[in-house]
């Protein structure tokens, strides 16, 4: 098997740092040079982890910049728009019409949705990696109340039944935009095409259409945004009218992981942890009681709008190991899924860990965004989760195969998981010089460079 010894670690880390430097704007790091000119929510968190090993100024700046767009109700938007490139991306800030909401940020232009709450565990990693603990503690004191307010937003506005499970109201909020997980609820969305606001996609200018979400998907994405605008971004009104209201295991497990990080950080700065512990205990209970599927060994999603379970075939349902949500027995079932034919090698093909969707499914597409390709951030979370449960060899395999893909093809956004493609394809997919691939590569290799 490939090992880190087979790679020129210093060269790889130097290139990763060069990518982050090239995507740096002066206050935040773009996810990629062309397709993504703005600051994205969870990207900023993963990027900050990479910086925390060698440039604390920029690690801190990532979170400061992102939270400068926090809404009054605590929501941290999916996108903070770079005014120099506002119309280079669709939807632009004007399309969101967030001015309709009295909760919206008044000083920054933003989108009107959010993303997975990585920021609590990111802040924890920044503190852990800091050489100057005094400075890092001051940064924890600065960011803690803002991140806590964001968690408060989720539990107060996105948990209508007080289950400890928050919902997403747009596929983009999941981070796994066009995953087949969302196909059924999206297909149930009915609307008159003529009533969709006119728009022109920009993502196809910098990427292959076969690697991106379809126009069918985009019509529904835009229809949902139009609902939010017509509701003036009022959460109660949106819940009543929105046809996409889903409890996603990935989104909730990341929130749990950040709850746990905030509980630990609160102890350093003398903050009360009662509310965080209450949220966290309820979330873990409901993840296991409502979303865990003991027959399939994976966490399912739940469609609140249609009141039905969504059978999970995406890697999102395996990531709860990252937040230590499963019992040891459940974690073993997850490992069995990861190493079985639905996520690993089959009789017909060798697979890189971890495809974003079950490669034996008819919906699997090895090139199309979140419908099959390997993503470095998902592998990073699974690596750390598996280590916690003592599955060290499998955890190491996740790290090794991530580095192998980067070493062979470069710092792409996502990669074909089919191993017999190796040597035939000359590159990965999506954006090249992708920031979180670079940042998490640095984190993977920090033991070798320290």
From TrEMBL:
The protein's matches in SUPFAM superfamilies, at most eight in alphabetical order, are given as: Six-hairpin glycosidases (SSF48208)
Q: Which UniProt keywords apply?
A: Glycosidase, Hydrolase
Superkingdom per UniProt: Bacteria
Q: Does the keyword Hydrolase apply?
A: yes
Q: Does the keyword Hydrolase apply?
A: yes
Any one GO MF annotation of this record? Glc3Man9GlcNAc2 oligosaccharide glucosidase activity
InterPro entries in the record = 6-hairpin_glycosidase_sf, 6hp_glycosidase-like_sf, Glycoside_hydrolase_63, MGH1-like_GH
Q: Which GO terms describe its biological process?
A: oligosaccharide metabolic process; protein N-linked glycosylation
Annotated ranges, domain Mannosylglycerate hydrolase MGH1-like glycoside hydrolase? 36-437
Family according to the record: Belongs to the glycosyl hydrolase 63 family.
Annotated PANTHER family: MANNOSYL-OLIGOSACCHARIDE GLUCOSIDASE
The name this protein goes by in its record: Trehalase family glycosidase
Question: What organism is listed for this UniProt entry?
Answer: Roseihalotalea indica
């Amino acid at each position: 098997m490939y090992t880190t010894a087979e790679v020129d670690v210093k060269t790889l880390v130097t290139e990763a740092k060069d990518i982050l430097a090239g995507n740096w704007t002066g206050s935040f790091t773009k996810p990629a040079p062309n397709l993504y000119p703005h600051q994205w929510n969870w990207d900023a968190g993963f990027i900050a982890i990479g910086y925390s090993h060698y440039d604390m100024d920029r690690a801190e700046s990532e979170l400061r910049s992102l939270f400068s767009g926090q809404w009054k109700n605590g929501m941290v938007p999916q996108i903070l728009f770079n005014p120099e490139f506002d119309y280079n991306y669709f939807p632009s800030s004007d399309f969101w019409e967030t001015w309709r909401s009295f909760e919206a940020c008044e000083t920054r232009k933003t989108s009107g949705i959010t993303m997975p709450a990585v920021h609590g565990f990111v802040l924890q990693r920044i503190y852990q990696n800091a050489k100057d603990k005094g400075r890092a503690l001051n940064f924890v004191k600065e960011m803690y109340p803002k991140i806590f307010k964001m968690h408060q937003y989720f539990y107060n506005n996105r948990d209508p039944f007080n289950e400890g499970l928050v919902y997403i109201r747009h596929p983009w909020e999941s981070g796994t935009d066009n995953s087949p997980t969302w196909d059924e609820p999206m297909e149930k969305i009915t609307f008159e095409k003529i009533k969709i606001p006119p728009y022109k996609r920009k993502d196809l200018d910098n990427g292959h259409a076969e690697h991106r979400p379809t126009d069918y998907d985009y019509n529904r994405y835009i229809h949902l945004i139009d609902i939010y605008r017509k509701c003036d971004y009022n959460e109660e009104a949106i819940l009543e009218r929105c046809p996409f209201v889903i409890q996603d295991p990935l989104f909730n497990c990341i929130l749990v992981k950040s709850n746990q990080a905030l509980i630990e950080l609160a102890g350093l700065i003398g903050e009360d942890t009662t509310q965080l512990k209450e949220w966290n205990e309820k979330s873990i209970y409901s993840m296991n009681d409502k979303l865990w599927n003991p027959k399939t060994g994976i966490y399912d999603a739940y469609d609140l709008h249609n009141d039905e379970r969504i059978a999970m075939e995406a890697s999102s349902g395996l990531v709860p190991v990252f937040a230590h949500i499963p019992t040891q027995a459940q974690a073993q079932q997850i490992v069995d899924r990861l190493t079985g034919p639905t996520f690993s090698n089959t009789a017909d093909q060798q697979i890189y860990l971890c495809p974003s969707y079950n490669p034996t499914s008819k919906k699997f597409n090895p090139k199309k965004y979140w419908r099959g390709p390997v993503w470095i951030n998902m592998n990073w979370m699974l690596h750390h989760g598996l280590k916690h449960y003592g599955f060290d060899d499998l955890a190491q395999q996740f790290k090794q195969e991530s580095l192998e893909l980067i070493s062979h093809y470069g710092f792409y956004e996502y990669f074909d998981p089919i191993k017999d493609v190796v040597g035939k394809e000359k590159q990965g997919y999506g954006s090249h010089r992708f920031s979180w691939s670079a940042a998490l590569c640095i984190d993977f290799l920090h033991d070798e460079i320290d």
